[in-house]
Amino acid sequence: MTLDEIGYVVSQYTNVLDHPEEFNTRMNWGQNQLFYECIKNKNFELLEPFKYVRGENGTKPLTFVNGNCLLPSDYVYARGMYYLLDSKPIRVNMLNVNDYENFMVSPLEYPTKEYPIANIISDRIRLLPKDIRFVVFTYIKKPTEIFY
Questions:
Q1: What would the DSSP string read from start to end of 48-70?
Q2: What's the N-to-C CA distance of the chain in angstroms?
Q3: What whole-number distance in Å separates Cα of residue 34 and Cα of residue 40?
Q4: Residue 1: CB partners within 8 Å, gap ≥ 6?
Q5: What confidence category does residue 120 fall into, taking pLDDT thresholds of 50, 70 and 90?
Q6: Helical (H) or strand (E) element with 102
């Protein structure tokens, strides 16, 4: 769906005084259509207002226990992860399930603190090596619902 098509549907309910419930429903629908279309097309410039960084600007980083951490409840799409090793930022390589599983069993390529890996599965993040505790996580969060 194009932005023009979304705008047309939303414009059908611009008289808020007559139909506030329909206006809210249509505006949220339009916002979600545009939001998920941008994610699908990896148009991160338009998604910049939804970018959130856990672990910077006074927010708490993700805390891992034995290499596992629950995803934030407002998480939609991962943009990156890093942690500090002796005050030096180390990027965490985000992998798909197959690549992650292959690294787990490979004696030659097993992740180290200098080259950590992570994988998002269901509602959690798996991280290797397992002794990394705190990670800064950048992600796209769900848009808040429009209510007029």
A1: GGGEEEETSTTPPPEE-BTTEEE
A2: 24
A3: 10
A4: 33, 37
A5: very high
A6: helix 97-105
Cα gap 89→141, rounded to integer Å: 23
Distances, alpha carbon 74 to alpha carbons 48, 107, 123, 140, in Å: 15, 36, 11, 8
What are the structure tokens assigned to 40, written together? 């699908």
Query: Does residue 12 carry a pLDDT above 70?
Result: no
pLDDT digits (tens, 9 = 90+) for 101-113: 888 787 777 889 9
pLDDT for 14-65, tens place per residue? 555 556 777 777 778 878 888 888 889 888 888 888 999 999 988 999 999 9
**Tokens linked to 12:** 């059908």
Tell me if 92 sits within 8 A of 118, measured CB to CB. Answer: yes
Nearest in space to 130 (alpha carbons), one of 141, 118, 145: 118
- The verdict on pTM exceeding 0.90 is no
CA distance 73 to 79: 16
